[in-house]
Specification:
Strand 1 and strand 2 form a beta hairpin. The protein has two helices and five strands; from the N terminus they run E-E-H-E-H-E-E. By secondary structure, it is largely without helices or strands. It has a domain of 53 residues. This is Protein argonaute N-terminal domain-containing protein.
């Protein structure tokens, strides 16, 4: 057990104090909560806040209607199903032709999965290739040059960092050297 020294130099065991009780609050006998008529005092006001005097508040309330009482229970949001016109067309306005970049894509069922590869293009001196448009040229040349090493797999490339194939590429280390002669940067 822990001991402390008293003022005379002797040691005595450390005692725990009993928990403090809030004697200034009366408890409701039904649920152990403070009685509604005895609330704790409000916190002090900050120095930059000016309190409203009760007379001013009463005069202001005469000119403005009182605010509505808060709802006792939040209302459930109503959901309405929007009906479509029976013929599928609207009745007002004029039809317009809309061009969108969404296309229907059909893929043959396959046992294989789509694979995503991170593309990291670097020059011979290990500096990253950051020029736009070079990535497509490099990957086109890669596909042409290493078609058999890629198991004749076609791929989709986003022009920056992502390449997708159907099924995995056969090599574990997919590093390839591609030489482009017609790049204007000289690297």
């Amino acid at each position: 057990s822990r001991t402390q020294q008293n003022s005379e130099g002797g040691a005595h065991p450390r005692r725990r104090r009993p928990p403090r009780r809030n004697s200034h609050r009366r408890m409701d006998p039904h649920d152990g909560e403070p009685a509604a008529d005895e609330l704790p005092p409000p916190p002090p006001l900050p120095p930059n806040v000016v309190p409203i005097i009760a007379e001013d508040a009463a005069a202001a309330s005469e000119s403005e209607p009182p605010p509505p009482p808060p709802p006792s229970k939040p209302a459930k949001p109503r959901r309405h199903i929007m009906a479509r016109p029976p013929n599928g067309l609207g009745k007002k306005g004029q039809p317009i032709q809309l061009l969108a970049n969404h296309y229907k894509v059909s893929v043959k069922p396959s046992e294989e999965f789509f694979n995503h590869y991170y593309v990291n293009l670097k020059y011979e001196d290990d500096t990253p290739v950051d020029s736009k448009g070079i990535g497509r040229k490099v990957l086109d040349k890669l596909q042409h040059t290493y078609h058999s090493e890629l198991a004749d797999k076609d791929f989709a490339y986003d022009g920056e960092k992502s390449l997708f194939t159907i099924g995995a590429l056969p090599q574990i280390n997919n590093e390839f050297i591609v030489v482009l002669e017609d790049i204007g940067s000289g690297k």
